[in-house]
Design goal:
The complex is a heterodimer of chains A (295) and B (320).
Chain A (H helix, E strand, L loop, with lengths): L2 H25 L3 H10 L1 H10 L3 H20 L6 H21 L4 H10 L7 H30 L1 H6 L4 H23 L1 H18 L3 H26 L3 H19 L20 H12 L7
Helix pairs in contact in A: 1-7, 1-9, 1-10, 1-11, 2-5, 2-10, 3-4, 3-5, 4-5, 4-9, 6-9, 7-9, 9-10, 10-11, 10-12, 11-12
Chain B lengths: L1 H8 L5 H27 L2 H47 L5 H21 L4 H10 L7 H30 L1 H6 L4 H42 L3 H29 L6 H23 L10 H10 L11 H6 L2
The chains are: A mainly alpha (295), B mainly alpha (320).
């Protein structure tokens, strides 16, 4: 295989993997956690490079540590999840940068880490991605119903006697596996984009979880493969092009999709007396069309 | 004692280190004070997103007006994305965190594509991410001071309203306060701090300045006055310690430590110290909670607390 077909295979694998896991990231609002995960596994990867062990192993072990730290800190009094995740993100990333800055080739390695170098992917990277994609997809298929249940109604799930703790851990590990597999080849920004954008786009097209997954996976693959091909045609950074393709799909869906901006009302965030001229006009229009009971 | 003091003071007799110290301390205080709002309103992700959406502004500003254009480009991009985020937060098509993530990655990718057409790709990207605090000049200091004055004036003028909005959004709405405009003000303040800091200390450090000192101070106190004072103090202290450590490591031990990232690590060290203090001083609970790990994970994975008025995920997804 030449470099381009290797990049395309990797893009398709990572795109599909991220699309499937991303559905759960979007449903459970784990975007910031995912972002923190991509940044905070960084020192693990640098340490693994320094010690000469497998990069995926270094990132994976560090990722588990981070999950535990976040879980512990969030339960402290006076600590909220957003701040804890923010602190962990900064701490992990800064540690990675300091470790890396002590070595040579600082700038180059770092930008590769951030925006990825999908064109230099190796056969072993592809094998790892394929293996992880297989494991993750099998797990998602086997536990899909329970994971969705946990996302929507934890109390009922506890009451029904499901092993909630184990299932939560499974989901976190799936997200972590996806991040650790994607980041070394495609970079942090791209990993977040591929995890969130296809799933959020799918949300605009369908409400059911099965439908979302059925849209998100092909969309992830298409964004990744299309982005790589486009970047080759235009001659710009591959990772960033993939991000832009994914984000454009979202932007277009925002306007065109059944649950997008053009066809839903402005959210009534103010219970106050004045809903604003636009909202009033729109409500009146809907009333005249018979879509709503009250103007 | 003398040597410790020497390590902390001596490096800053050099003019460029003195300017860097002034910048770090100013930004530390600024970040700490605004960070209190970020922590109380749980805006850490918005802050992270703002640092990335400023990037294309920096790149385009640099392309148009060289170094002088950076500040203005960043300012335009920062203010525009702050307004965009305010609209997004009030409009729920997708969950707020997902739309933030998409905007963040999208804006950043635009910046990367513009930069990737330039010859000095990686060094530009590195400079943006970590800044060049040691190259701070007087103009940057003046800009930071100006931002400082604006932020303090706005906070002093709107203190009461912003606090009410942070602690009781529904109450604020019911009393007729313009909550949307107050949210916009907070986002704009965060954007101003990001813009002030991004050229000197880079995106990563700006997020840390806005989140870590305030989160550390929050671990130590429940009262607002001490919270603001502690956050400002910790921010300034982190900047000072980090610069001194980075200087000493490179001169004394020949290890190059990126100064911006070392400042972040100093801040994280202060956070850990605050955490240790809070762990040691916490009262033991009356009884150990039943099935603790499950409850803990539930907090992380289940419904995040969210802001009052947000709909829960199940409502948002299962239809309206």
């Amino acid at each position: 295989m030449n470099y381009l077909s290797r990049a395309l295979v990797e893009a398709a694998l990572v795109g599909g993997l991220c699309g499937a896991v991303g559905v759960h990231v979007v449903l459970r609002r784990l975007s910031f956690f995912t972002m923190a995960m991509t940044h905070a596994t960084f020192p693990g990867i640098v340490l693994a490079a320094i010690l000469g062990v497998n990069l995926y192993l270094g990132g994976g072990v560090f990722g588990v540590l981070i999950v535990l730290v976040v879980v512990w800190l969030t339960n402290r009094p006076r600590a909220d999840q957003a701040s804890v995740v923010g602190v962990v993100l900064c701490a992990g990333f800064a540690l990675g940068v300091v470790l890396m800055s002590a070595r040579d080739g600082f700038g180059q390695d770092l930008s590769a880490y951030l925006v990825g170098s999908i064109l230099t992917v190796s056969d072993s990277d592809i094998r790892v991605a394929a293996l992880v994609a297989g494991v993750v997809l099998v797990t998602l298929t086997a536990l899909g119903k329970e994971l969705v249940f946990g996302a929507f109604d934890r109390e009922a799930m506890v009451a029904r006697g499901y092993p909630v703790l184990a299932l939560d851990l499974v989901l976190l590990v799936l997200v972590e596996l996806t991040v650790v597999t994607s980041v070394p080849t495609v970079g942090t920004i791209l990993a977040v984009a591929l995890l969130v954008a296809p799933a959020a786009t799918a949300r605009l097209w369908c409400r059911g979880v099965a439908g979302m997954t059925a849209v998100a996976v092909p969309l992830g693959v298409a964004s990744a493969v299309g982005g790589v091909l486009l970047s080759q045609a235009v001659g710009v950074a591959a990772g960033a092009t993939v991000v832009l393709v994914g984000c454009s799909a979202f932007a277009v869906s925002l306007l065109a999709a059944p649950h997008g901006a053009a066809r839903t009302r402005w959210r009534r965030s103010r219970p106050g007396p004045t809903p604003g001229r636009f909202a009033t006009a729109l409500a009146g229009y809907r009333y005249r069309r018979g879509e709503e009971e009250t103007p | 004692m003398n040597t410790v003091l020497g390590l902390l003071v001596d490096p800053f007799t050099l003019p460029f280190m003195a300017r860097a110290l002034a910048q770090a301390v100013l930004l530390g205080v600024l970040g700490g004070v605004v960070g209190v709002l970020v922590v109380l309103r749980r805006l850490a992700f918005v802050t992270e997103a703002l640092t990335h959406t400023v990037f294309p502004g920096v790149v385009v500003g640099f392309a148009v007006g060289q170094t002088g254009g950076v500040l203005w480009g960043a300012l335009v991009a920062g203010l525009a994305s702050a307004a965009l985020f305010t609209v997004l937060a009030r409009r729920e098509l997708v969950t707020e965190d997902a739309s933030l993530a998409i905007l963040l990655t999208g804006f950043f990718a635009v910046g990367v594509i513009v930069v990737s057409r330039r010859r000095s790709y990686t060094s530009d990207l590195t400079a943006f991410l970590f800044g060049r605090i040691l190259a701070t000049d007087t103009g940057q200091l003046v800009a930071t001071l100006a931002v400082f004055a604006v932020v303090v004036a706005v906070l002093a003028a709107l203190r009461k309203e912003l606090l009410l909005r942070a602690f009781d959004p529904q109450g604020a709405t019911a009393m007729g306060y313009p909550v949307a405009r107050l949210d916009l003000v907070v986002n704009l303040l965060v954007a101003l701090v990001v813009v002030a800091g991004v050229r000197a200390v880079g995106t990563v450090l700006v997020v840390a300045l806005l989140v870590v000192p305030a989160a550390a101070a929050r671990l130590l106190t429940d009262r607002l006055g001490p919270l603001v004072a502690l956050a400002a103090l910790l921010g300034a202290l982190g900047g000072w310690l980090g610069l001194a450590a980075s200087f000493e490591a490179s001169l004394g031990y020949g290890v190059r430590l990126a100064s911006g990232a070392t400042v972040v690590l100093a801040l994280v060290g202060l956070y850990l110290a605050a955490l240790l203090t809070s762990v040691l001083t916490a009262r033991l609970p009356h009884h150990l909670p039943h099935h603790l790990p499950g409850r803990v994970l539930g907090r992380v994975l289940g419904r995040p607390p969210g802001r009052a008025g947000d709909r829960t995920g199940s409502q948002a997804v299962s239809g309206r």
